[in-house]
Design brief:
heterodimer, A: about 80 residues, mainly alpha, Non-ribosomal Peptide Synthetase Peptidyl Carrier Protein, Chain A, B: about 500 residues, alpha/beta, Rossmann fold, 2 domains, 8-stranded mixed β-sheet, 7-stranded mixed β-sheet, 13 helices
């Protein structure tokens, strides 16, 4: 991911990528910009729950059910972090 | 000849929540009659083996009961097996027929095998009559695969008598009112989901609601599902509850009378959290092994406060510990050994494995722990290498063997790593040949079409040499430590 691309995706793109990579047990460069449930093989329900746990740790608060279910892609995670309180 | 029988005259109905369909007991019986005729026409009878390659639907139960109605043995395989794994299982089991359900298209089945593709809902239901299905007490009834679908399969064989006794004991420890409406969130190809969550309530006259494989969205609906279907009983694995407790609001009213949790170590905190969330304090940490059909022991949080590793008393049969000198004791600490009435008869075509697992009539579990004076079992560790990923058991030897077929892999050693959600994940140390270059994602892709998903390693460590003990033997703990050291440094 170049700096330009990172800017196009919002200020939390790299953080989102790192958190998702941690949840999926891969290195961040192995995740492409289109990473999403159904497209990224590793992203199953257990990995999704790991993602929720790392996001909660990062934000210092609990996610709501709606927030958990809305995180379907790397872009969703970045957008969520951009708007997260 | 003494027979072990199951009475279809008083079974409940089966609902498939994902497909929004329900088969009444009469419709299930109608489907059994249709399939029975087809099986008999194909020459399937006692001593035959039939592979059921699908699962988690009412049609699966119709197929299973039809196979039992002719007295044959059903080999229930994971519907997610790759076509290559199915082919391997067919070669190993030499079945008389295959019931592929809705998987017909992706299975390259041999031309000479009888394939029965009737998995549809029957045209008509049938009223109860004489519906006692089954076979000789000692005759094979069920084969469940615990590993090796890529190499040398390891298939547990249960007799009609073993399954019947397991269900009888389950009925003794779970009353009929509790089993009235059961939610099954587990797959139907292993003992916990099939025998515990489905056959136990069905043969108590209860209704079963199938909801496996719903992922996070499915877990998020759990509270609502319990209320909507007035669920009285369910059993699942710790990983499911870790997801459900976070994702689902609690039920708006108390419906559940009892919850079993098993197939993986259950923390005391999780038992308490499930009790708080569900509104029932009858949450039971269950000990179940495929070789013993399903649950073999368990205690309620009502009887003793939850503690990590604390299971409970046997649900039929005896437990003991095997001490370090090889002797057995009724109480004490050592390897947990069991002598239940629902013990498997053998591993299919593996007398070597059977002789190692069952000694003097006692099944050696590979788990370490204690049995106290009241007969309560507590698990403290594991001798066997098995990896438990969210309740799905993975044989590391099977993963090693698959990877070592890759042309660039000299040696592989799989092991479990702790995981906050799954309990354990599959990790592997790999030694690559000479100048070869390949990364974990490439190897993972190579594995995907060759082995079922839960066995595909999630963490990859590339070592120049797989460490051995000073006697030159592979020790997975040593390999695990060596791998973790590469991350720490």
């Amino acid at each position: 991911m170049t700096e330009t691309a990172s800017l196009q995706h919002g200020i939390h793109w790299q953080t989102a990528r790192q958190l998702l990579a941690s949840a999926l047990q891969v290195e961040p460069p192995q995740l492409d910009a289109e990473a999403a449930i159904g497209r990224t093989e590793r992203w199953d329900s257990l990995a999704h729950m790991r993602l929720v746990l790392v996001l909660e740790e990062h934000l210092g608060r609990t996610l709501t059910t709606e927030e958990m279910l809305a995180l379907e892609s790397l872009a969703d995670i970045a957008a969520f972090l951009d708007g997260a309180p | 000849m003494e027979r072990a029988v199951f009475d279809l005259a008083r079974i409940g109905e089966v609902s498939d929540l994902a497909r929004a369909c329900k088969w009444s007991a009469a419709e299930l019986r109608g489907a059994v009659v249709e399939r029975l005729a087809t099986l008999e026409k194909a020459g399937v009878g006692p001593a035959s083996r039939v592979i059921i390659a699908h699962g988690g639907t009412p049609a699966f139960f119709a197929d299973l009961f039809a196979v039992w109605a002719v007295g044959a043995c059903a080999a229930c395989v994971n519907p997610d097996l790759t076509p290559g794994e199915i082919a391997n299982v067919i070669t190993f089991t030499e079945p008389d027929a295959v019931l592929p359900g809705d998987r017909t298209g992706d299975l390259a089945l041999p031309d000479d095998i009888c394939v029965i593709e009737d998995a549809a809902k029957p045209n008509k239901g049938l009223d109860p009559g004489t519906w006692r299905i089954g076979g000789a007490v000692a005759a094979p009834a069920l084969m469940l695969f615990t590993s090796g679908t890529t190499g040398d399969p390891k298939a547990v064989v249960h007799s009609f008598g073993s399954i019947r006794s397991r269900i009888n004991y389950n009925h003794k420890f779970i009353d009929g009112a509790t089993l009235r409406r059961t939610l099954c969130v587990l797959p139907s190809h292993f003992g916990h989901g099939l025998i515990g969550n489905c056959l136990t309530p069905l043969f108590a006259g209860g209704d079963v609601f199938l909801a496996a494989g719903g992922g996070l969205a499915g877990a998020a609906r759990l509270g609502a599902q319990l209320v909507e279907h007035d669920i009285t009983f369910m059993s699942s694995v710790p990983a499911f509850w870790k997801v459900a407790l976070k994702a689902s609001p609690p039920p708006s009213r108390d419906t559940v009378r009892q919850i079993n949790i098993g197939s993986a170590p259950v923390a005391a905190d999780l038992v308490r959290a499930v009790a708080d969330w569900s509104g029932t304090d009858d949450v039971r940490n269950m000990y179940g092994i495929t070789e013993t059909a399903n649950w073999i022991a368990g205690g309620s949080a009502r009887d003793r406060p939850p503690e990590d590793g604390l299971i409970g008393p046997m649900w039929g049969g005896d437990a003991a510990v095997c001490l370090s000198d090889g002797s057995r004791a009724k109480t004490g600490e050592g390897e947990i050994v069991l002598r239940p009435p629902s013990l498997m008869t053998h591993y299919f075509r593996r007398p070597d494995l059977t002789a190692h697992a069952i000694r003097d009539g006692w099944y050696h579990t590979g788990d370490t722990g204690t049995v106290d004076a009241q007969g309560w079992i507590r698990l403290t560790g594991r001798i066997k290498n098995e990896i438990n990923r969210g309740g799905m058991k993975v044989s590391p030897e099977e993963v090693d063997a698959l990877l070592e077929r890759h042309p660039l892999v000299v040696e592989a050693c799989a092991f479990g790593l702790p995981d906050a959600v799954a309990g354990e994940i599959v990790a592997v140390a790999v030694q690559i040949a000479g100048e070869g270059t390949i990364d974990g994602e490439q190897l993972r892709s190579w594995c995907m079409g060759r082995i079922r998903r839960e066995c595909v390693p999630e963490r990859w460590f590339f070592l120049t040499d797989i460490p051995k003990t000073d006697r030159g033997k592979l020790n997975r703990d040593i390999v695990r430590q060596a791998c973790l050291k590469t991350v720490a440094t």
